[in-house]
Amino acid sequence: MRPFIFKAADRFKLGGRVSNQGSAVVIELEGSKKCIGQFLTELLHNPPPGGRICSIRVRPRCYIGYDKFSILDSSESSDLQGFIPPDAAICSECLKELQDRKNPRYSYAFTNCTCCGPRYSIIKALPYDRVNTTMSSFIMCDSCRSEYENPNSRRFHAQTNCCPECGPQLSLVDSRGIKLESANPIDTVRGLLCQGKLVAIKGIGGYHLVCNALDDKAVKLLRQRKRRPDRPLAVMAAGINAVKLICTTTLREEEVLEGRQHPIVLLEKRPCSPLPYSIAPGLSRLGVMLPYTPMHHLLFDDNLKYLVMTSGNISGMPICYKNEDALERLKDAADYFLIHNREILVPLDDSVVRVVDGKEMVSRCARGYAPAVLGMKADAPVIAMGAEQKASFCMLQKGYAHTSQYLGNLEDMDTCTEYLQTMERMKVLLQTNPKIIVHDMHPGYFSTQYASRQSCTRLAIQHHHAHMAACMAEHGLAGEIIGVIYDGTGAGTDGAVWGGEFFIGSRSRYIRAGHWKYVTLQGGDSVIKEPWKCAAAYLYAMGIDSRGILNSVDASKIKLVEDTIKHNINCFKSSSMGRFFDCVSAIVTKRTRATYDSQAAIELESVADTSVLEYYNYYIHEKEDKLEIGYEKILSGILKDLKTGKPASYISVKYHNTVCEATIDCVCRLRAQYGLNDIALSGGVFENTYLLTAILKGLKSKGFNVYWNMQAPINDGGISLGQAAAAAEMVKEVAYVPGCTGKDCFNT
Ligand SMILES: [Zn+2]
Ligand SMILES: [Zn+2]
Ligand SMILES: [Zn+2]
């Protein structure tokens, strides 16, 4: 902001000064009323790229008589709110310099300016000044220094400014850690990729494992070494035209691809795409991104247009971001390493987004988006711990919620360590010391156990209520609404696993007004990894013999599941929509084993022939003051269609349509009963674009106001924000007693 403000003040001939205080700026201005008015208009309507003006406070000051406008050094002490700036993709001006043979930064892999480059990933402390970043070890050369000091330069006060003379450098290392002499490491790497080699490449938030995406053999080798058999791999395409050859894109999707963050965008695959099937087996969508650092741009040429760019980790572990660590942990996965000497402090995966109904929807909030900041009228000193899968945490401070990046699954010890480290770092950056710790109701979650060991006031929030509260917080919804939460797993208050829920409530409280009918499932987490077990359980509940339907599964295994359900061994009740999708996928697509999260459901969506409008019969009845949607008629319809040889594409879409019809029907009944017209859709199952879009359209056509999570993930990545939002509201309603420790003070 400071260089931008300096230039604007200069243009309107104003005297004064500007300084950073936290991430707020304090501007003193002297000049005519008219010019000051013009300055403020400019500031509000044309802020610099990436700048965000939340509020402006104007106060009169005594006249000093400044003869010019100047930028002051950042003041460290301040009670103003600090924001942590996210990383930004290379801007168009820097890209021009990168490609201009006459420019001193021609083909320099670390070119950046005030508008672009790494931020959060390299910041040790706020304010964002070079001394507080890992760029502090590089001393600016005279030429860079003069750019930094020149108000007319694009790099005026660019904290990460550097050039080939004074900035970070690349080097090439083999899998034994031995440095290879190379005049131009990037040229060498390009050659290696063309030969089918796998290279670990250090980017902004960590390492990627990279290979030529058109080389099927290399892709399969990467899958094998990364121990990732089916999960789709993200592709980086040389440019927007290369993207259009492999996927169809809308204008909005192109805007997001080329936006400030350059995330992975989930796009519809073209049937004639030149990419091998092994990139995203069985799926209709592909995650694609554009080069976002200068180094990425240099990797491409006419012979290399598509790269697989997947997080540099071994399946299930956190992304590698330190050189020594990467060389150790990825030595069996990568043939070579393209490393550099700019240290990464905060690991960040690539963000994943999709466009639904013309709106960007963040599925994985990481590089470029994190930490995500949301204004929230709340003063409570809250830290929310998030969920077990797709972990994130959220801190409330001075009217804002700061949500961390995606931190993986907390079943892995290294991931837990990273999660706690990131949390400590964020406390330092925001200079906050939370007094209320908010967690899920699941007693087995790492975060719940961690919370129970802290001497803070504790508060547990029901999982699906947190999903709903996240959606409400994002859209600024206060009063009561209807929440439809379709999710995989979440602990209910009755000991069952919930996930097909209809809530009536606000951010602070809810009642369970309806849900999908319970089915008894068996076998804890193995049900998630083996969707056929879901199918066997649903069919058993209906008294139907699974053998012949689940014909790829051993009859003895099916019998074992049936027997354990009969004797109620290791069983639980579930209303989970995620498990219902797993069940149908196992029956229809024959996906009996999942090697990644939601594989069965994603494949079921992928085969759907979206032109079909039919749906199956279903029923909704009232039971103990709650609406209950049954699954039996739906499954009977599916089995009948299977018997008559209807294709999976037809049955899949008909099933999707049925879930939509039943949902809209149920919501209409709740509107009649409670007189509410605002609907929040949340939960991981809504990552299913067909389902979300269809329910959205259906509800809108019936006059509902429909909201869903866009900035914070609709999956468990958004749980921490929802927990924080719910807690903030509860604390307002129940007088918070500081110093009340170790008890679940707000649990009801
Ligand atoms: Zn730039
Ligand atoms: Zn320099
Ligand atoms: Zn969830």
**Largest sheet descriptor:** 12 strands, mixed
Task: Please estimate the helix content.
Answer: 25-40%
- Heteromolecules bound: zinc ion
Mean pLDDT over all positions = 93
CATH fold naming of the largest domain: Nucleotidyltransferase, domain 5
CATH homologous superfamily label of the largest domain: ATPase, nucleotide binding domain
**Which overall shape is indicated by the principal axes computed on the Cα atoms?**
globular
Beta content: 15-25%
Feature tags:
single chain, 748 residues, Alpha-Beta Plaits, DHBP synthase, twelve-stranded mixed beta sheet, seven-stranded mixed beta sheet, 30 strands, 32% helix, disordered C terminus, binds zinc ion
Structural notes for this entry:
The protein has 748 residues and is of the alpha/beta class. It has 5 domains: 70 residues, Alpha-Beta Plaits (2-Layer Sandwich), CATH 3.30.70.100; 88 residues, Alpha-Beta Complex (DHBP synthase); 171 residues, DHBP synthase (Alpha-Beta Complex), CATH 3.90.870; 144 residues, Nucleotidyltransferase, domain 5; 196 residues, ATPase, nucleotide binding domain (Nucleotidyltransferase, domain 5, 2-Layer Sandwich), CATH 3.30.420. It is 32% helix and 19% strand. The protein contains 22 helices and 30 strands. Strands 4, 5, 6, 7, 8, 9, 10, 11, 12, 13, 14 and 15 form a 12-stranded mixed beta sheet that branches. A 7-stranded mixed beta sheet has the order 27-28-24-23-22-29-30, with helices on both faces. A hairpin with a 2-residue loop joins strand 27 and strand 28. The C terminus is likely disordered. It binds zinc ion (ZN) (3 copies).
